[in-house]
């Protein structure tokens, strides 16, 4: 590595370390952190590639925001509190204004969650951002995909489908201000971090919806070896998404679009009936929309029913890279 690359790392990817559990941050061959005895460490990585995970013209601020949030969403899915990240970035060129905007937004989000950037890698190549996020959870209290049981109720946070409508709007240049909230959700997903931290008191099973509800709930069912019955009329849709289908789709909701495209970054989790009231209260306290969308069954199948109690089948289950 030459001096200009060290300068670049120092200028854009070195923030003051505010956590006292960081023993060694950027500057050595490895970073080092300490983990309390009563906690377990959770580690996740996600890559965002220009043209694959975001349209080429996405702003550096939105890219920085989303690159962190998709990782925090994975930590939230398991009930972990985010603590540290590393950043591996590949840049086509050194564009100071792009780097300034990216770095500032990165710092804002990291500060908001008290996360320290403790290392990374900087290379030249097509724009790609890989973040590894690490978080802590009380020992034995992680939320897992393999813990659903028949009879559990299935819940989702927030609303589904905004990001895919936002993407459709950007790619087709719809230029409709009523769809701006969807574009915002596409670029600025909100990982349900604080809700998930408290959910660990009541739930044992969760996943984040990143590839579409059908695929992600499917992962829970596969891991837990059970089935589910989902009531489509209970799927939470924002006013903007309802407007989109009303205005651009003859007022017919395109369920495959809403449920198999992804980028929602909401949580899907299961609850024993007795814990429902406490979790509903928790969501209310956090002003987070919460919807019960169905129930875990023994069948081994994921069945979705529309308002007329007709079963709806999904041929494509989720976003696939290959
Ligand atoms: P090495 O050659 O030992 O792998 P590098 O020369 O790649 O280390 O990086 C030097 C230091 O700068 C390391 O401590 C590394 O963690 C840090 N670093 C490199 N790129 C980044 C980045 N994008 N963000 C944060 N830290 C980085
Ligand atoms: Mg080294």
Task: Describe the protein.
With 322 residues, the chain is of the alpha+beta class. Helix content is 34%, strand content 25%. The chain is built from ten helices and 13 strands. The strands form three sheets. The chain has a seven-stranded mixed β-sheet with strand order 8-10-7-11-9-12-13, with helices on both faces. A four-stranded mixed β-sheet has the order 3-6-4-5. Strand 12 and strand 13 form a beta hairpin. Helix 2 packs parallel to helix 6.
What would a concise description of this structure say?
Helix content is 34%, strand content 25%. The mean pLDDT is 95.
List keywords for this structure.
globular; alpha+beta; binds adenosine-5'-diphosphate; 322 residues; binds magnesium ion; seven-stranded mixed beta sheet; four-stranded mixed beta sheet; single chain
Rg, please? 20 Å
Largest sheet: 7 strands, mixed
* Mean pLDDT over the residues: 95
Strand order of the largest sheet: 8-10-7-11-9-12-13
Dominant shape = globular
Taking the alpha carbons of the first and last residues, their distance comes to 34 Å
Order of helices and strands: HEEEHEHEEEHHHEHEHHEHEEE
Helix content: 25-40%
Structural class: alpha+beta
Query: What oligomeric state best describes the polypeptide chains here?
Result: single chain
The poorly predicted ranges are none
Bound molecules: adenosine-5'-diphosphate, magnesium ion
| Estimated share of beta-strand residues | 25-35%
- Please, how many helices? 10
Total beta strands: 13
């Amino acid at each position: 590595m030459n001096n200009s690359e060290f300068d670049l790392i120092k200028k854009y990817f070195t923030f003051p370390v505010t956590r006292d559990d960081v023993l060694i941050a950027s500057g050595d061959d490895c970073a080092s952190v300490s983990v309390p005895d009563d906690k377990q460490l959770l580690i996740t990585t996600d890559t965002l590639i220009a043209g694959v995970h975001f349209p080429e013209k996405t702003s550096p601020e939105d890219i920085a925001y989303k690159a962190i949030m998709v990782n925090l969403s994975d930590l939230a899915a398991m009930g972990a509190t985010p603590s540290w990240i590393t950043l591996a970035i590949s840049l086509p060129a050194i564009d100071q204004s792009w780097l300034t905007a990216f770095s500032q937004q990165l710092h804002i989000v990291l500060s908001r969650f008290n996360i320290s950037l403790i290392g990374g890698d900087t290379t030249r190549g097509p724009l790609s951002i890989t973040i590894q996020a690490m978080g802590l959870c009380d020992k034995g209290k992680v939320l897992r995909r393999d813990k659903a049981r028949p009879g559990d109720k299935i819940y989702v946070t927030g609303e589904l489908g905004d990001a895919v409508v936002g993407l459709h709007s950007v790619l087709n240049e719809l230029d409709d201000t009523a769809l701006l909230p969807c574009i915002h959700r596409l670029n600025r997903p909100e990982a349900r971090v604080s809700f998930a931290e408290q959910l660990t008191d009541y739930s044992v099973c969760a996943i984040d919806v990143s590839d579409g509800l059908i695929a992600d709930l499917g992962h829970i069912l596969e891991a837990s070896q059970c089935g589910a019955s989902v009531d489509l009329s209970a799927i939470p849709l924002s006013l903007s998404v309802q407007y989109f289908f009303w205005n651009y789709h003859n007022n017919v909701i395109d369920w495959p679009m809403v449920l198999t495209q992804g980028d929602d970054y909401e949580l899907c989790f299961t609850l024993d009936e007795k814990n429902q009231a406490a979790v509903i209260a928790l969501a209310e306290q956090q002003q987070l929309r919460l919807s019960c969308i169905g129930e875990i069954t023994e069948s081994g199948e994921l069945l979705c029913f529309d308002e007329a109690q007709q079963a709806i089948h999904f041929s494509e289950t989720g976003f696939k890279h290959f």
